[in-house]
């Protein structure tokens, strides 16, 4: 429940509250403030009686805002027993809000997905993986948990992809998670992207490789090395690096056949990138280059 506060009620609420107070300092003219409120209400509701959400209209109580040293809207204050614990400014995502609030809350969020995200924000990766698995076991059609679990499995330990035993275990779990997914879940475009990433990562992990040597061969224009190295980067979630790498190889390639191979590899990468804004920006850069097919 959200409670509006005034300059008169603020001190009493702060002094008498036994739980943590989340104070949202906002203004009616502030579009980011209005966008943030539904997320705040959703996140605050997951903490039950441990957290109370208060809203303070900065236009109505400028002296109180000044006293709180608020200079930017929106500003979030966490207060307990009259003391400010922390503050945050600007628009935030749900996961960022969870990461901001959770360290100061004794009772964890009631929702498994929110608990998992909170654990991930605190670096408790293994616990996050366990919670996602529990959520999937409770509801096999929970694609949000399935996508989060597989993404985390792929991105864990990406610096040594295809080399250490932990990567193989993570890939095995990701494959199992995909195989157990109901048919309707597999129609999700995000899960389809992850399927491609898992297949590539599994192929790369079949044997230990000297990735530094492969990178050197790729720099020299070896097409097989270019494909392998870009797959390795993408399998570890390093899409931006993979895209820049392929664009550089495309610019440097002088042979038309090589240009076609690299361009097709780049298109495949774009189709599997989870960040569509990033993919579209990269696609525009690729199309700004001359398409080798156009000169045939």
Provide a descriptive summary of the structure in words.
InterPro entries: Thioredoxin-like_sf, Thioredoxin_CS, Thioredoxin_domain, TPR-like_helical_dom_sf. The protein has 296 residues and is α/β, with parallel strands linked by helices. The chain is built from 14 helices and 5 strands. It has helices at 7-16, 31-45, 62-67, 94-101, 112-121, 125-138, 143-155, 165-179, 189-204, 211-219, 223-235, 239-252, 256-272, 276-288, and strands at 2-4, 20-26, 51-57, 75-80, 83-89. Helix 2 (31-45) links the parallel strand 2 and strand 3. The radius of gyration is 24 Å and the shape is elongated.
Write the layout of secondary structure elements.
Layout (H helix, E strand, L loop, with lengths): L1 E3 L2 H10 L3 E7 L4 H15 L5 E7 L4 H6 L7 E6 L2 E7 L4 H8 L10 H10 L3 H14 L4 H13 L9 H15 L9 H16 L6 H9 L3 H13 L3 H14 L3 H17 L3 H13 L8
Parallel strand pairs: 1-3, 2-3
Antiparallel strand pairs: 2-4, 4-5
Helix pairs in contact: 4-5, 5-6, 6-7, 7-8, 7-9, 8-9, 9-11, 10-11, 11-12, 11-13, 12-13, 12-14, 13-14
Report how far apart the termini are.
66 Å
Could you tell me the radius of gyration in angstroms?
24 Å
Q: If helices are DSSP runs of H or I spanning 4 or more residues, what is the number of helices?
A: 14
Question: Percent range for helical residues?
Answer: 55-70%
Q: What pattern of helices and strands is seen along the backbone?
A: EHEHEHEEHHHHHHHHHHH
Mean of all residue-level pLDDT scores: 81
**Largest sheet, spatial ordering of strands:** 1-3-2-4-5
**Low-confidence region ranges:** 157-164
Strands, count: 5
Structural class: alpha/beta
Instruction: Characterize the biggest β-sheet.
Output: 5 strands, mixed
Net shape: elongated
Task: Note the beta-strand portion.
Answer: 5-15%
Instruction: Give the oligomer, counting copies of the same chain as homo and different chains as hetero.
Output: single chain
């Amino acid at each position: 429940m959200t409670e509006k506060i005034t300059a008169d009620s603020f001190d009493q609420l702060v002094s008498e509250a036994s739980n943590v107070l989340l104070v949202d300092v906002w203004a009616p003219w502030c579009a980011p403030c209005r966008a943030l409120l539904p997320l705040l209400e959703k996140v605050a509701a997951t903490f039950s009686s441990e957290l109370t959400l208060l809203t303070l209209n900065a236009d109505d109580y400028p002296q109180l805002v000044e006293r709180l040293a608020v200079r930017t809207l929106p500003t979030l204050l966490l207060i307990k027993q009259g003391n400010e614990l922390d503050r945050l400014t600007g628009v935030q995502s749900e996961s960022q809000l969870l990461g901001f609030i959770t360290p100061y809350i004794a009772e964890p969020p009631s929702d498994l997905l929110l608990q998992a995200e909170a654990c991930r924000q605190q670096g408790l990766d293994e616990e996050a993986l366990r919670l996602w698995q529990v959520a999937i076991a409770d509801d096999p059609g929970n694609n949000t948990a399935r996508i989060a679990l597989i993404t985390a499995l792929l991105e864990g330990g990406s610096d040594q992809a295809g080399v250490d035993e932990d990567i193989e275990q993570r890939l095995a779990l990701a494959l199992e998670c995909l195989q157990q997914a109901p048919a309707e879940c597999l129609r999700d475009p995000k899960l389809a992207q992850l399927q491609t990433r898992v297949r590539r990562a599994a192929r790369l992990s079949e044997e230990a490789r000297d990735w530094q040597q492969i990178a050197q061969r790729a720099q020299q224009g070896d097409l097989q090395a270019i494909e392998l190295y870009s797959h390795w980067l993408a399998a570890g979630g390093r899409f931006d690096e993979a895209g820049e790498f392929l664009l550089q190889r495309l610019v440097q390639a002088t042979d038309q056949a090589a240009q076609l191979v690299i361009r097709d590899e780049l298109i495949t990468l774009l189709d599997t990138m989870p960040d569509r804004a990033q993919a579209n920006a990269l696609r525009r850069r690729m199309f700004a280059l001359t398409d080798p097919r156009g000169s045939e």
